Amino acid sequence: MQPVTHAVLRSWSIPPAATFAIVLSAILYLRGWWLLRRAGSPSIPPWRAATFLFGLLSLWVALASPMDVFNSFVLTAHMLQHMMLMMVVPPLILLGAPLVPMVRGLPVFAAREFAGPFLNWSVAKRVGSVLTNPVFALLLMGVAMFAWHTPALYELALRSPAWHQIEHACFLLASLLFWWPVVQPWPSRSQWPRWAMVPYLLIADLQNTALSAILALSDRVIYPSYLRAPRLFRFSALEDQIAAGAIMWVVGSLAFLVPAVIISVQCLSRRSSPEAQSPSRPREALLFEALLTRLPGFLPSRNAADTRWSGGRKQAVTFVALFSAVVLCLAGLLALGSNDDDDQVLRFKGESGPFAAAVFAPSGDVAVGPSTFSVLVQDRDTQDVVLDATVDLVARPVSAAEQAPITAAAYNVASANKLLQSAELNLPNEGDWTLSIAVRRNSDSGEFSAPLHVAKPGAEVGMSWPGVAIAAFTLILFGTYFGRRRWRKVERPAQA
To answer: Which whole number is the average pLDDT over 231-237?
Structure first.
């Protein structure tokens, strides 16, 4: 295996918070699935559990693999990541029928006091019906695809890690809603006839074809970042864009047309089957009602023991402890961040001697304090990535020549992208600095110089948008619970 290929395959960035959430989802699902099987429910066979877990694994691969690491360098990698998030992960997760196992896998108190009332809440049912309506889901899917592939929003996602995460969340959520009517996960009920999913998928394929054709047939590079980025492989930015459009065209069409063919065959087979003419209610509808009425084996019901410390109060304390532990773990992992180089942008490109170098650093002015700088070294003539060069960084203030320079040696072990060599420089003063990069390989050498402006660190936001979402969810969860308890206390004397 070529060293560059080996370095690409080793370029994984493990997102701590997302990994924790994925593992926690798998544990909840498996616990609920096992409890349902033990209760004698045959509605979720092992193959459904396998598809759900494979869907979670696919989600993790999309977020942690080289597809994520190289998405700011190669549009093809970014498109493969988008296809995973929109065409692979959602149908696999929904085929696992996650609603009942996830609810049943929750602690008893959470399932009885939160999940059960929420599923029975008429407002939640109406909102869910609107969100999973095929018309709304199809429009939302189209809006998400076209909006995030416009140059303005696409470039924003490349520059900002927070917006990049929001982009991926939009793709995943919109795709889950889109695939819901197609997969129709148990025990939900279809709002349209089954045959209507065929034109539904064909319209989605037309949307996908239009967008992919724009990328594949354009005679110019649509996203300027890829035009400025150093070429890691021997194809131009325009060829990379054409390849990305072709991938979107082929993979998207297969993802839409194959289910359309399967549904067509199923509908034709059922039309000729006498069972399809039966007016009896489908078994899924009966099981859905069983879920909502909290039959044993689905949602745990309240019993007399719940009034004692060994019952309801103990369950409540256990849930609060587990919930607090999960929130604290997520908060800590979000603060830890991930080493995916998402916050770095191209700051300098130059050539010296036999080398070409590109320097990446955080966008905007470099803040006082430690900052990470990454260097890509390539052969000046062939553009092949050079992995065995020695790279040293030296930062000197322009106005204070007597101040000692800040030096550091760069290594590829410090970067998620193993084609880059990274080092941390602790810049103590604000003002104008000069960053010098010395590259040596055997008897060859090159010197590069780039200006830096170091500024005071701005006011940092206390938490990222996932942290805000977790805090808002916690407030809504417990606010709803205590509000409902207060309403019950007011209602009981009125009834008496």
So the answer is: 84
